[in-house]
Design brief:
A hairpin with a 4-residue loop joins strand 1 (about 10-15) and strand 2 (about 20-25). The chain starts with 9 loop residues before the first strand and ends with a helix. It has eight helices and seven strands; from the N terminus they run ββααββααββααβαα. The chain folds into two domains: about 5-105 and about 165-250, no CATH class; about 105-160. It has helices spanning about 25-40, 50, 110-130, 140-160, 175-180, 190-200, 240-245, 250, and strands at about 10-15, 20-25, 70-75, 85-90, 165, 170-175, 205-215. The longest helix is centred in the middle third of the chain and has 24 residues, at about 110-130. Mean pLDDT is about 90; it is low at about 1-5. About 40% of the residues lie in helices and about 15% in strands.
Length: about 250
């Protein structure tokens, strides 16, 4: 089902060239219906038969307590006119950043895990200590403050790993795109559109159209519904799309 069809255009303002860049949905919307049908039929995000038999790639968990997820596809072509389709899921899928046939995140996963995992373990341990302590005690406040500081420091280190590439051949960090003082929400750069456009730019592909849809149980705020189409989100995607799309129109 298509909802908000007129709002599915991918666009953003580029601070480099002071221009609004736009990428239509057109063909990608039509192709997305085939992807939705395949996900429903195979109940897996695996492309190969082997991957479809992997229980970790099952779509079952999207209809449980973890709820659904955004998926996206980008229609591209090579310099010699060969059609190419790219596919992405938002964030991680069942704890995995990388899955065959789906585009990679905007950072080196191994480096990300080396930085994230030890600190994440400390944050979880602090959470257990907070749960075990008396809720209004001074020690609880100190533990909460320590956890908050660790989380903030970790987020800064992780955001520094993100590298964005656009169609003018320019690479930049999140801070360079957003401004060093900009507030960076959790999950920025992990949505479908940034992943897709970054991969296309890195691989010298020309983007033609992009569409995103939600698959699975509706989210808790009821703002996302199964098999409905939505534009790239305002807080995490929109601030990056202008930079990422820069140069794409001239290629088209």
């Amino acid at each position: 089902m298509i909802r908000n069809k007129e709002l599915t255009v991918c666009s953003g303002f580029c601070r480099l060239c002071k221009t609004d860049h736009i990428l239509p949905s057109t063909s990608a919307l039509k192709q997305a219906h085939h992807v939705i049908a395949a996900l429903a039929t195979y109940q897996s995000i695996g492309f190969s038969e082997e991957d479809r038999n992997d229980p970790n790639l099952s779509t079952d968990f999207l209809f449980g307590e973890q709820r659904g997820k955004m998926f996206g596809l980008l229609e591209c072509q090579t310099r010699d006119g060969k059609p190419v389709w790219l596919f992405a899921f938002s964030g991680q899928y069942n704890g995995r950043w990388q899955i065959p046939a789906w585009v990679e995140p905007l950072f080196n996963v191994q480096t990300f895990q080396q930085i994230n995992d030890p600190v994440e373990a400390q944050i979880k341990e602090l959470g257990r200590q907070i749960s075990a302590a008396e809720s209004r005690s001074q020690s609880t406040k100190q533990l909460r403050d320590q956890r908050t500081l660790l989380s903030q420091q970790l987020m800064q280190k992780l955001h520094a790993l993100y590298e964005l590439n656009n169609f003018r051949g320019i690479s930049a960090s999140l801070s360079e795109v957003l401004g060093s003082e900009a507030n960076k929400p959790t999950g920025i750069g992990d949505c479908c559109a940034p992943k897709l456009l970054n991969h296309a730019a890195r691989n010298d592909l020309i983007p033609l159209s992009l569409a995103e849809f939600y698959f699975g149980r509706e989210n808790r705020s009821l703002s996302r519904h199964h098999a409905h189409f939505y534009p790239p989100c305002t807080d995490k995607c929109k601030p990056l799309l202008g930079f990422l799309l820069c140069g794409a129109a001239s290629d088209r």
